[in-house]
Amino acid sequence: MRGKHLFPLLSLLLAVPFAMAAQRPNVILILMDDMGWGDLPSYQDQRMKEGLPAMDNPGLRTLAREGMTLTRHYSSAPLCAPARASLFTGVHQGHAKVIRDRSFDLPIEHAPTLGTVMQSAGYRTALIGKWGIGGGTEHAGTPQESTSYPTRRGFDYYFGYLDHVSGHHHYPKEDPNPISPTKRSGIWDGDKCVTADCDKAYSVDLLTARAKKWIIDTHRQNPRQPFFLALTHIAPHSQLQIPTGPYPEGRGVKGGVQWIGKPHKLVNTAEGKINSYIYPRYADKKWPMAQKKYATMIARLSDSFEDLIQTLKDLNIDRNTVIIMTSDNGPHDEGGQNPQFFRNYGPFDGIKQDAWEGGFRVPTIVRWPGRVPAGSVSDHPSQFHDWMATLAAIGGVRAPFRSDGVSLLPTLLNDGTQPDSCLYMEYSAKMSRNKTTTPGYQDFLPSRRNAVRGDQQMVYLGKYKGVRTNIQSHADPFEIYDTAKDPAERHDLKDTPEGKKMQPIMHDKVLRMRRVYDYTHPVRGTFAQRPYDAEPVPALRKEEMPGTLVPLTAQSSQGVRRKDGSMKRELYLNVPETGKYVFFMKTPAKKGAKAFVRLHDAHLLDAEYGYKPGAEVSSSMGEGTTEGDAGKTGLKPIPLEKGWHPLLVETEGFPGLPDLFWQREGGRKEAIPVQAFRTAAP
After folding, report:
1. Which CATH architecture has domain 542-680?
2. Fold agreement (16-417, 542-680)
C-alpha cells in the first residue's frame, strides 16, 4: 500500500516549489523623473474644485482609487542620481559608497540591488528606462566599460537610457545629447546601442511599449516564474517635450502603445511631427505653453499606467501583480517649467534639491488587487531604502544585512505592527551651478526664499523631523517639525522644551548612522565632503546605557536566531581612547558563512554579498567600489569617542562570532580582546 501512494506523493512534493513560485506576485516598480507630490490626483482634484489651474489625469486617479497612497514617503535625496542609487541598493545616503550629491554616472558599488534580491527569490528581472548610475564615461558609457551596467547589477534584461543627460531628451534620435562625447542620446537594448533606430520614438511611448512587450513575452515563456520589472521613466523631467499624437486607441495586449521592433519604427506612435501634440483638454487653456507641455507629459504617463494595467488584466495576472509608482525627487524648474503654476510641490515648501518637504517627499501609490486595500491612505513615514526589505518579503527571501530599510508589508496589507523606518538624508547643492538657492516663491516661508541650500541634512526622531540647511559646522542646530500636524514646516519646535531635549539627541544620531564618504574618481575627483565629517562618533551617554553590562560568555556570543535562520547579537564595545580606528573581520572558512556588523546604526563590516568565507574584510568604504582611484579611495579611518558603543553582529551559516580586529591610527592591528565586549544583563 505504501508503494501505491509513493509516486503521487512524490509528485506532489516536487510540485510544491513551483506552486509557491506561481503564488508569489509579480512586481512592477514605476519610477517617475521629477514628478512632484502635488501632481497626485488628490491634490490636483482639489485645485480643480477651487477653480485653480489643475491637471486632470484619469489613469493616476484610477491607480490611487485601486491602491494605497503613501502620503509621507520620502526619496533618499532631492536629486536623481543619489536617490536612484539608494533606491536600488537599499541603503540611505549616509551609507552610499559612490553615489552621493551630484556624482552622476559613477558606478554604484558591487552590492545587493533590488535586481539581485529578486533574482535570489527566483524572479525574472528587467530594467527598462533611465539608469544613470552605471559608471564608464560621464554622459556616455557602454556595456563594456560601465562596471555597474544594469545586467551586472541584477537585471536579466536592460533597455533604456544609460547615462543621465541622455535621459533629458525625449526623442533620442532627433534630440541628441550635446555634451556627450558621442554627441548622441544613448538608447541601449542589451549590449547594442539602438539610438539610430529610434525615429520619432517619444520616451513614454518607447519605454511603455518595450515594458509591455517584455511582460507579455516573459509571462508567456514561463507563466509560473514571477517577474520583477523596474520601469524608470524620464518624464516629466526636462526637456519639456510632448508626443507626436494622441495615445493610441484601446489598451492592453492588443491596444495602446505597441512595440513594433523594426529599425526606424520601434513603436506604433513613431510617426507624425515630433514635439507637437498637446492633449485636447489643455489645448484651449489660457496657460503658458510650458505648462501645457508639462500637463501633457503627466497625462501621457497617466495613460501609460492604464495601458500597463490592462495588459496585466489581459494576461490574467492583474491580481497577482504589485505595482509601486513613485518619483525620484520633487518637481523641477527647468526648461521653462514653473512648479508654482500647478503647485507641483503640493502644500509644502521646496522643490528638487531642497531638504524641505517639497524637495523629496514624493508621490507614491501601491496597487495590489485583493491585498492592498483599495482607495486607502497611509501617512506612516517611510523612505526609498524600505523597498528592498519590502520586495524581499514579497519574494520570500531575507533582506540583505546591508539593507537600511524595513518591510512596508504590515502597512500595505494592513496586517501586523509596522516597524519604524530609519529616515535620513544628506545632500549638498554647492556644486549645482545656478541652483544653489531655494526659489523665492511667495508661498514659501520668507526665510526660505532665495536661501542658500549648501550642505543639507534631515533625520527623523520618532515623529519629529530635524532638518538643517547651509550647514557650517556640526554645532549648527536642527529646525524641528511635526510633519504630520505641520506638513508645511511652519512651526519650528527647536526652542520649545521638547525641542531643546531633542537637539543633542539628533546631533548624536546623525553621527551614529552614517559613514564618511571616501571615494575618489581618477578623472572627476571626489564628492560629498561634509563639515561634520571629522566629528568623532559619540559613545553612549549615561542615560542611554542599557543598565548593567556583563562580560561576554560562550552562550551569549551565540546570539538569537531569527525566523529567517540568521543570528543576531547585540554587543557593547569599549573604545579605550578617542581616536581614529580601522576594523577588520573574517568568518570561518565554511561554505555559506556570512557576517555583517553595525556600529550604532552605521555600517562597519560587510562579509555578505560576494564574500568568500574565511577571507578578511575591513571597514574601508572603498570595499566593493569600482572605477575609483585606488590610491585615494577607502583610506579614511572611523573617528570614535572614548566609551561604550553598541554593535549589532548578524551572521549566517556558522555558530559563534566572527573574528574581529582593530587598529588605532599609529598603532598596530590586533584582535579585539574579549574583555572589550559586554552584553546587557538579562
Report:
1. Sandwich (2.60)
2. no
SS3 601: coil
- Average pLDDT on 608-623 reads 98
User: Do residues 109 and 87 touch, judged by C-beta distance below 8 A?
Assistant: no
**3-state secondary structure (DSSP) of residue 119:** helix
Q: What is the pLDDT confidence band of residue 184, given thresholds at 50, 70 and 90?
A: confident
Q: Cα(273)–Cα(283) distance, rounded to whole angstroms?
A: 17
Residue 558 confidence class, pLDDT cut points 50, 70, 90: confident
320/368 Cα distance (integer angstroms): 7
pTM score above 0.90: yes
Q: What are phi and psi of 312, to 5 degrees?
A: -65, -40
**313 φ, ψ (degrees, to nearest 5):** -65, -40
The closest alpha carbon to 603, from 505, 515, 540, belongs to 515
Q: For residue 221, what is its C-alpha cell?
A: 515563456
pLDDT of residue 15: 34
Total residue length of the chain: 682
**Cα-to-chain-centroid distance, residue 107:** 15
Side chain identity, residue 295: A
CB 516 within 8 A of CB 94: no
Per DSSP (E only), the strands in 560-652 are 560-561, 567-575, 579-586, 594-599, 602-607, 616-618, 638-640, 643-652
CA distance 252 to 309: 7
Q: Domain 16-417: state its class.
A: alpha beta
The letter for the amino acid at 177 is: N
Tally of CB atoms within 10 A around 522:
12
Q: Are 422 and 450 in contact (CB under 8 A)?
A: no
Exposure string over 245-263, b if 16+ CB within 10 A, otherwise e: eebbeebbbeebbbbeeee
| Contact criterion met (CB below 8 Å) for 572 and 549 | yes
Confidence tier at 10 by pLDDT (50, 70, 90): very low
Q: Which amino acid is at 140?
A: A
3-state secondary structure of 23: helix
Domain definitions of the chain by residue range: 16-417, 542-680
pLDDT(17) > 50: no
Average pLDDT of the chain, as a whole number: 95
Span 275-288, pLDDT tens digits? 999 999 999 999 99
Closest CA to 66 of 90, 41, 47, 85: 41
Nearest by Cα to 657 from 554, 563, 578, 529:
554
> What is the per-residue burial (b if ≥16 Cβ within 10 Å, else e) of 562-588?
eeeebbebebbbbbeeebebbbbbbbe
Residue 500's pLDDT is: 97
Q: What is the DSSP string of 661-682?
A: EEEETTS--EEPPGGGEEEE--
CB atoms within 10 A of CB 49: 9
**Positive or negative CA dihedral for 303, 394, 92, 448?**
positive
Give the pLDDT band (50/70/90) at residue 557.
Answer: confident
- CA 101, 635, 114, 76 torsion-angle sign: negative
Q: Of the candidates 238, 259, 234, 256, which has an alpha carbon nearest to the alpha carbon of residue 247?
A: 256
